[in-house]
Automatic annotation (TrEMBL):
The chain crosses the membrane at residues 12-34, 46-67, 79-100, 112-132, 277-300. Keywords: Membrane, Transferase, Transmembrane, Transmembrane helix. Signal peptide: none annotated. Its main location: membrane. It is a multi-pass membrane protein. NCBIfam families: EPS_sugtrans (TIGR03025), EpsB_2 (TIGR03013). It is found in: Membrane. Residues 272-455 form the Bacterial sugar transferase domain. Belongs to the bacterial sugar transferase family. This is Sugar transferase. GO terms for cellular component: membrane. GO terms for molecular function: phosphotransferase activity, for other substituted phosphate groups.
């Protein structure tokens, strides 16, 4: 895994993006070479633009999920993702092609050929060589422990499948340890931990134990492994890196205090605010026809009001009124008692079900963003009734209020619709990852992921 601007990206994903960008760059140069005489003047004029075009388009497709771990598990999923990438890439490609300085060598035939080549590269990535480079940087992992935490580590590496990380065995922490893993995969080796790791050619060791202070696994042996060049990770660091979440069950207050991240500097605040204002204004202009149509559909089906305003908890626990399109019946809470909104809630109208699926109901929150109550990206704002309940039941729940709530967020694109305390715990783990690592880069990733979720129906509502 590579850490880019505090966000973890699989190293194989980076290799695949670079490989495809290089392939597209070469293809663009070939097209120009066939259409014009290949000389120093053409190379000097075309190379910078061709490189910019290739990298930009592959980054776009990467953000749209073409290179996402576990992609390509079945034909339908592959077809949907490739079709979406091509459909969005082609118009963007036309726009970028027009802006880039190609000199006097660009004309309609070249432009058409370049766009066709782009579609070909995306299709090849999706259907033929999705796994190219997947085994180049395979890391062999040994897990310390055989209990429930060890099972959770293996599950995290196989759901979805991650061909770049391979669990080679489970090293027992001590006699009498609870065994939840396949007994055939337990490492039995006469020697110390380092000798076992060298024998299995291990690159990383994951300590899947709650207590790591030397009781069952001597710290000296782990230190020897680290000094020998083997990376050693605890549960918190492992899940943050692989799953993009900060696990509640392995979290300590000292880790929050002394660990990296959770920075709330004024520079980041200013950049985030400017980004929110600019992007929100652009989205409002583009979405105005959609919002007008949604308002008419709601009014025709269920009458007024079209919008609803509800009290939510924002930055620092401050209350504010969120504005959304009304997707439920007018008598959704006629008894006055707050209720969790479920994925297939019978209170949702037919129009409401559609606008919630494609997130049109969230668009009026852009006015909350302009006002400053919300950000484009952040934890989902919850109602005070549920916040009080969740703060009592879930450790560190209040940490999510260290940043502004968002129209969309890391938890919304990584976890399905939440309608219980257990769902709130799972979503909080993603929220804590965002609070710890939020940057402009991660905000951009979340916005692209939101586009992917809306277009494919994959992920959270």
């Amino acid at each position: 895994m590579l850490k880019l601007f505090n966000h973890y990206v699989p190293s194989n994903t980076v290799l695949q993006v670079l490989f495809d960008a290089f392939l597209l760059f070469v293809a663009v140069m070939v097209v120009f070479g066939l259409q014009s005489k290949l000389d120093a003047e053409l190379v000097a004029a075309v190379v910078p633009s061709a490189m910019t075009f290739a990298v930009t388009m592959m980054l776009l497709n990467g953000a749209l999920g073409l290179y996402r771990t576990g992609f390509g598990g079945n034909f339908r999923d592959t077809l949907m993702r490739v079709a979406m990438s091509i459909a969005l890439s082609i118009p963007v490609a036309y726009g970028i092609f027009q802006v880039l300085p190609w000199g006097e060598f660009a004309h309609d035939a070249v432009e058409i050929n370049v766009v066709v080549l782009l579609g070909f590269v995306v299709a090849v990535r999706g259907f033929a060589v999705r796994r190219v480079g997947a085994g180049v940087l395979v890391k062999r992992i040994m897990v310390i422990g055989t209990g429930a935490d060890a099972v959770a580590v293996e599950h995290a590496l196989t759901h979805p499948a991650n061909s770049s990380l391979q669990v080679v065995g489970f090293y027992p922490a001590g006699p009498g340890e609870d065994v939840r893993v396949d007994p055939k995969r337990i490492v039995h080796f006469d020697g110390n931990l380092l000798a076992a790791a060298n024998h299995l050619r291990v690159n990383e060791i994951i300590v899947a134990l709650k207590e790591r202070r030397g009781g069952v696994i001597p710290l000296r042996e782990l230190l020897d492994c680290k000094m020998a060049g083997i990376k050693v990770l605890d549960l918190s660091s492992f899940f943050e890196r692989v799953r993009g979440q900060v696990r509640i069950d392995s979290l300590r207050a000292s880790w929050l205090i002394y660990g990296e991240g959770f920075r709330q500097g004024w520079g980041r605040t200013v950049v985030k605010r400017v980004f929110d204002i600019v992007v929100s204004l652009i989205l409002l202009v583009l979405a105005t026809p959609v919002m007008i149509l949604a308002a008419l559909m709601i009014a025709i089906e269920d009458g007024a009001p079209v919008f609803y305003r509800q009290e939510r908890v924002g930055l620092g626990g401050r209350l504010f009124k969120v504005t959304k399109f009304r997707s439920m019946r007018r008598d959704a809470e006629r008894d006055g008692k707050p209720r969790w909104a479920a994925a297939n809630d019978d209170r949702v109208t037919r129009v409401g079900r559609f606008i919630r699926k494609v997130r049109i109901d969230e668009l009026p929150q852009l006015f909350n963003v302009l006002k400053g109550d919300m950000s484009l990206v952040g934890p989902r704002p919850e109602r005070p009734f549920f916040v009080d309940q969740l703060t009592r039941d879930i450790p560190f729940y209040a940490v999510r209020h260290c940043v502004k709530p968002g129209v969309t967020g890391w938890a919304q694109v990584r976890y399905q619709y939440g309608s219980s305390v257990d769902d709130a715990i799972n979503k909080l783990q993603y929220d804590l990852y965002y609070v710890k690592n939020h940057t402009l880069f991660l905000d951009t990733v979340v916005l692209f992921e939101t586009v992917r979720v809306v277009l494919t129906g994959d992920g959270a509502h």
